[in-house]
Design brief:
721 residues; Alpha-Beta Plaits; penicillin binding; PBP_dimer_sf; alpha+beta; Trypsin Inhibitor V, Chain A; five-stranded antiparallel β-sheet; membrane; 21 helices; Beta-lactamase; PASTA_dom; seven-stranded mixed β-sheet
Length: 721
C-alpha cells in the first residue's frame, strides 16, 4: 500500500507551524522580559543596578579624633596618642627580592635587646620567638609587654638594627598625669569590636558621645578586575570630638593625692577620700580616693570602680551634727549659754551614751558642741521636733541625688520609722549619705544660706561652638543668712574654742572651722556594724577662712590598721591641715588669725560697701580708709560694677576693680596675681587666657585700649624671685 503523501505533507506543515509558533512565542516573551528589565532594572523584585553597584562598591570608615579633657587652666588630663605594637617576623620564608632574610635570625641576640628595652625577662622573649619559629608561624607578638609602646621605645628597637622587627601603629588614650582623680576623669580604651576608643568610667564614659565625635567614610568603586575606577572616590571627613574642661585644679589635685598617700603611710586605712570645693561656686577643685588606679600605668585596675563622691554611701558620724545644729538655730531653740546634763539618754530599751561613756556633767550647749555630745544633738532634735528635723534633712538634700552629672549616683537613706533610728540619726549613725551630699549641704552654711550644687564639669566645646558651660547653681536652702552666720560661729568655736582642750585641726595662719566625725562602719556582708578594735570611719568636714570661707574640704578614712589610738585622738588632721594650708596659700587667701605681737602694725579691715551708682569721689570717701589697691576702668560718670561684693571682708592692699559705665578699657594688670586676674575676668565677663603661674608679667592688650566682650586677651604670669 502506498503512503498517503498529501496527509504526511500536511502533518509536516503543521509541525513546522507549531515549531515556528513556539520559538516565536519564546522570543516574544524574552523580548518582553528584557524590555521590562531595561525599563525597571529589576528582576524578581531585586534591584539589578543596586546589586551591581554593591559588587563593585567599597566603603571604609575614617575614625574621628577623640576630644581632649583639660583641667580648669587648660592643662591636658586625657588625650589620644599614637602607640605601637611590636611584631617579630620568624618565618624563614620571608625574604626580600634579592633573597636577603627579613626575619629574626639570631634569636638569642634579639631576645636580649628586646628584653632590655621592654623590661621583661629575656627567657620569656626567647621562648616566644623559638616556639613561633618551631611551630612554623609567620610572626609572633609579645602580649601586654609588646603593646602600647612609646615612641622612644620604638626608636630604641629600630636603632638596634634587628631584622624581622616591625610595628603596628595604634591609637590609645593617654593620661599624662598618671594618678589624677581617676574616678572623676575615668578612662577610655580601644573597643576590640568597633575599633574605636570608648569611655569606660568617669567623665570619659558619661560624656562619651561628646568626646567621640562623628566618624567619616571613604567611598569608591572598583571594576571587575579590582582596579579603582577614576573619579569614583567620595570622602566624608570625620568630625573631631568635643573637648571637655573640668573644674579640677592641677596643683590642688596633686596636694590632695599626696594627702591621701600620707594617710596611707601613717595609718594604712582600708579606704579613704578627700574632696576640695570652692566655697563660693560649688566647683570641685580636687577629688581623690583610695583604693585608686593609675590610668597611665594600669596599676590598681580592678581595686575599686566605685566613685566615692557619688556612689559610696557612708554613715557620716558627728560631721552630720552640723545640719542638726543649723536646724536648731533656725528654729530658735539653740541657746549657746543654756545648760543641760550630758552623759547618756535612754530611748525605749536602749541607752545611748556620749562618746566618752560618761559625759562632762552639766555643761552649756556651746560646750556640748565642742565636746561633740550625742546627748546634746538628741535634745536639740526634740526641741525642734522630730518630724520637723526630718524636713530639714530633706531640704539639705539628704535622701536624694545631688544631680552631679555622674552615672549611678546613689541617694542614701534617712530611716525614720523607729524612735531609735531618729535619735541615732541626730549624731550621724543609721542615716547613710554620700560625700557629695555632705559637701552640698555644707555650702548653705558657708554661703549665707545659699545652697550650691557641687559640680566638676566646667564646659564642653567642639570646633564650632560651646556646647555646654556650667555656672553655679543655687538651690533653696532651709536656713537663713542669720542662721548661717550663727552656725559658722559655733563651728569656729569647735576648732578654736577651749572647752574640749586643744583641737588637733587648729591652724596657726588661718582660722579653720568645721566638725569631726567618728562613725561605726557598716558590715556589708553580715549586716550590723563591723566588730573589732577601732573599726571606724574617721573624718572631718571644714572650711577656711572662718569669717569669709573660700574652701571646703571633706576628708575621711575607714578602718585604720595602724596607730589606731593616735587616730582616735587626732583623726585625719595630719593630712587635712597641710591640704587646707597648701590650698589656701596656693589660692593666695589672706590669713584671718589675730596676732598679738607688739611689733605688728594693725592694718585696716572691714566689709566692702556697695558703691555701684556712686561717683568716683563718693566711692573714694567710702573705701579709702581701708587702703585698698583700686584699679578703675571705663569712661562713665557713675560706677556700674565692683569686683568685691557688698559685705565681703576686705583688708589693706586687697585689689578692687571699679568699672564706670558700659564701655571697657584695658587696665594695667602688671604685678597682679592670678587670682586678681580671675576677679577682673569675672567682673567684666571677659575671656582671658592665663599662661604660667605667679604674677602678671605681660598682657596682650595695651593699657587704656578699648575692649569688647569678644576681645581676645592673654596675660603671662611669672614667679617673683
Amino acid at each position: 500500500m502506498k503512503p498517503n503523501k498529501p496527509k504526511r505533507n500536511l502533518m509536516n506543515k503543521v509541525g513546522a507551524v507549531l515549531l515556528v509558533s513556539f520559538f516565536g512565542l519564546f522570543f516574544l516573551l524574552l523580548t518582553i522580559h528584557i524590555s521590562k528589565l531595561m525599563l525597571t532594572q529589576k528582576a524578581s523584585g531585586v534591584d539589578l543596578v543596586r546589586e551591581a553597584q554593591k559588587k563593585h562598591f567599597r566603603e571604609t570608615t575614617n575614625s574621628a579624633e577623640r576630644g581632649k579633657i583639660f583641667d580648669r587652666d587648660g592643662d591636658v588630663i586625657a588625650e589620644d596618642k599614637e602607640s605601637y605594637r611590636l611584631v617579630a617576623i620568624v618565618s624563614k620564608q620571608y625574604k626580600d627580592k634579592d633573597g636577603n632574610p627579613l626575619y629574626i635570625q639570631d634569636i638569642d641576640k634579639a631576645s636580649k635587646k628586646i628584653s632590655d628595652i621592654l623590661d621583661v625577662e629575656k627567657e620569656d622573649i626567647y621562648d616566644r620567638l623559638k616556639k613561633g619559629q618551631e611551630n612554623g608561624n609567620f610572626q609572633v607578638e609579645f602580649g601586654k609587654a609588646g603593646q602600647n609602646l612609646s615612641f622612644n621605645q620604638k626608636k630604641a628597637l629600630e636603632s638596634s638594627k634587628l631584622t624581622g622587627i616591625t610595628f603596628m601603629n595604634t591609637k590609645k588614650r593617654f593620661y599624662p598625669n598618671g594618678l589624677f582623680a581617676p574616678h572623676l576623669v575615668g578612662f577610655a580604651e580601644m573597643n576590640s569590636k568597633t575599633k574605636q576608643i570608648e569611655g569606660q568610667l568617669g567623665a570619659e564614659k558619661v560624656f562619651n558621645s561628646y568626646l567621640q565625635g562623628d566618624f567619616g567614610k571613604t567611598e569608591f568603586n572598583k571594576d571587575i578586575w579590582g582596579t579603582l575606577i577614576p573619579d569614583s572616590t567620595r570622602i566624608t571627613s570625620p568630625q573631631k570630638g568635643g573637648d571637655i574642661s573640668l573644674t579640677l585644679d592641677k596643683n590642688i589635685q596633686y596636694y590632695t593625692e599626696n594627702a591621701l598617700d600620707h594617710l596611707d603611710k601613717l595609718y594604712e586605712p582600708k579606704s579613704s577620700f578627700a574632696y576640695v570645693v570652692d566655697a563660693k561656686t560649688g566647683e570641685i577643685l580636687a577629688g581623690a580616693q583610695r583604693p585608686a588606679f593609675n590610668p597611665k600605668t594600669r596599676e590598681g585596675f580592678g581595686a575599686s570602680w566605685v566613685n566615692a563622691l557619688y556612689q559610696q554611701q557612708i554613715e557620716p558620724g558627728s560631721t552630720f551634727k552640723v545640719f542638726g545644729l543649723a536646724a536648731a538655730i533656725e528654729e530658735g531653740v539653740y541657746e549657746r549659754d543654756k545648760t543641760y546634763m550630758s552623759g547618756h539618754r535612754t530611748i525605749g530599751n536602749h541607752t545611748i551614751y556620749d562618746w566618752n561613756q560618761t559625759g562632762w556633767g552639766q555643761i552649756t550647749y556651746n560646750e556640748g558642741l565642742q565636746h561633740s555630745s550625742n546627748v546634746l544633738m538628741m535634745r536639740l532634735q526634740d526641741e525642734v521636733g522630730t518630724d520637723k528635723m526630718k524636713m530639714y534633712y530633706d531640704q539639705f538634700g539628704f535622701g536624694k541625688p545631688t544631680g552631679g552629672l555622674y552615672n549611678g549616683e546613689i541617694k542614701g537613706q534617712v530611716p525614720w520609722e523607729k524612735e531609735i533610728q531618729k535619735k541615732t540619726t541626730a549624731f550621724g549613725q543609721t542615716i547613710t549619705v554620700t560625700p557629695a551630699q555632705m559637701l552640698k549641704g555644707m555650702t548653705s552654711i558657708v554661703n549665707n544660706g545659699e545652697m550650691l550644687k557641687p559640680y566638676y564639669v566646667k564646659k564642653i566645646e567642639d570646633e564650632h561652638s560651646v556646647l555646654f558651660k556650667a555656672k553655679p547653681e543655687t538651690e533653696k536652702s532651709p536656713i537663713s543668712k542669720e542662721t548661717s552666720e550663727k552656725t559658722r560661729r559655733e563651728l569656729t568655736d569647735v576648732v578654736n574654742g577651749n572647752a574640749a582642750g586643744e583641737n588637733p585641726y587648729k591652724l596657726e595662719e588661718y582660722k579653720l572651722a568645721g566638725k569631726t566625725g567618728t562613725a561605726q562602719v557598716l558590715d556589708e556582708e553580715n549586716g550590723g556594724y563591723v566588730k573589732g578594735n577601732y573599726q571606724y570611719l574617721t573624718s572631718f568636714i571644714g572650711y577656711a577662712p572662718s569669717d569669709n570661707p573660700e574652701v571646703i574640704i571633706y576628708m575621711g578614712m575607714k578602718q585604720a590598721q595602724k596607730d589606731t589610738e593616735k587616730v582616735f585622738n587626732i583623726g585625719v588632721s595630719e593630712a587635712y591641715k597641710p591640704l587646707m594650708l597648701n590650698t589656701l596659700k596656693y589660692r593666695e587667701v589672706k590669713s584671718n588669725t589675730v596676732r598679738n605681737d607688739e611689733n605688728d602694725t594693725k592694718q585696716p579691715s572691714g566689709k566692702m560697701p556697695n558703691v555701684v551708682g556712686m561717683t568716683q569721689q563718693a566711692m573714694h570717701s567710702k573705701v579709702d580708709e581701708y587702703k585698698l589697691n583700686i584699679i578703675e576702668i571705663g569712661n562713665g560718670d557713675n560706677i556700674s560694677k565692683q569686683s568685691i561684693k557688698k559685705d565681703q571682708a576686705i583688708a589693706a592692699n586687697d585689689t578692687l576693680f571699679i568699672q564706670y559705665g558700659d564701655e571697657l578699657t584695658m587696665p594695667n594688670l602688671s604685678g597682679l596675681s592670678k587670682r586678681n586676674v580671675i576677679e577682673f575676668s569675672e567682673m567684666t565677663q571677659l575671656n582671658i587666657e592665663i599662661e604660667g603661674s605667679g604674677y602678671v608679667d605681660d598682657q596682650s592688650v595695651s593699657v587704656g585700649q578699648s575692649i569688647k566682650p569678644s576681645s581676645k586677651i592673654k596675660v603671662k604670669l611669672k614667679p617673683r624671685h
